[in-house]
Amino acid sequence: MADFLLPRHCVVCGRPLGLHERHICLYCDADLPLTRCWTQASHPMADRYNARIQEYLQEEQERLEHYQYAASLFYYSEEAGYREIPQALKYGGQLELGRHFAARLGALLAESPLWADVDWVVPVPLHWLRRWRRGYNQAAVIAGEITRELNRRPGARVQLRTDVLLRRRHTLTQTRMSGPQKRHNVSGAFRARPAASDAPRHILLVDDVFTSGSTLTACHQALRAVFPPPVRISAATLAFVQEE
Predict the structure, then answer these.
(1) Sign of the alpha-carbon torsion through 94, 212, 124, 73
(2) What is the DSSP letter of 124?
(3) Which residues of the chain have pLDDT under 50?
(4) Domain 33-241 grouped into CATH 3.30.1460
(5) C-alpha to C-alpha distance for 187 and 154, rounded to whole angstroms
(6) Which terminal Cβ of the chain has fewer Cβ within 10 Å, N or C?
(7) Which residues contact 39 (CB under 8 A, 6 or more apart)?
(8) Are 32 and 238 in contact (CB under 8 A)?
(9) Nearest CA to 35 among 22, 23, 48, 25?
(10) Parallel, antiparallel, or unpaired: how do β-strands 70-76 and 190-192 relate?
(11) Closest Cα partner for 81 from 129, 166, 7, 9?
(12) pTM for this entry
């Protein structure tokens, strides 16, 4: 009756959803371009993330780090309707949709041994002004569901930490920026607080979309200033853009 009065539609193709469909129809769900990278230590997203990390380490003349992990649920393309998933969360206020897909990613991470030692999940913070205007932080929505799924494992004690990483200044929207412009835009934009409790073994940084990796790398740099190796600082997002 509710669907008759206020029909729900697939976020990807716009088709009316059936009784047992949530946010995405069975046809689009079957074709969801999954990355399947959550079971792999090395793949294009992780390579890009690590390449950005090495760039700033070389600029600061610091030693190289161990290879960091990265994972994403699906591939993002401007030409495909699946781009609507992160956009509906980020700009459309569809928090339940974001939680639905974040829980799927979290469940997949929980099944992989690569993420078995994650003990902190840290969302990329918004500047307070943007947070106030939007009313929520989409990265925190995703991080909350990932934390919930990781804690379903026997004996898991994963913490959602929204107090560790701070955004020091307001940055411009990076949608139309080039790679170098993005790196300059977020350089020095984040600061990490020292942990009041025991240091983590494995931090999982969370954002909505991984494009150039500039934002997550800037967060990595801020966290690394407080948490030196061997603390691993990995990254997870809903979507991954294959080409910058």
Answers:
(1) positive
(2) P
(3) 174, 177-178, 181-182
(4) no
(5) 39
(6) N
(7) 112, 114
(8) no
(9) 48
(10) unpaired
(11) 9
(12) 0.89
Domain-wise residue ranges, the chain: 1-31, 33-241
Sheet harboring 202-210: ordered strands across?
70-76, 232-241, 202-210, 120-123, 159-160
Per-residue pLDDT tens digits for 83-123: 999 999 999 999 999 999 999 999 999 999 999 999 999 99
Q: Are 231 and 65 in contact (CB under 8 A)?
A: no
**In which residue are the tokens 């294959």 written?**
242
Residue 202, CB half-sphere, CA atoms under 13 Å: how many?
Answer: 19
92 DSSP 8-state letter: T
For the chain, first and last CA: distance in Å? 45
Q: Which residue has the tokens 């804690």?
A: 151
ω before 230 within 30° of 0 (cis)? yes
Q: What is the pLDDT of residues 170-196, one digit of tens each?
A: 555 545 544 554 455 566 679 998 875
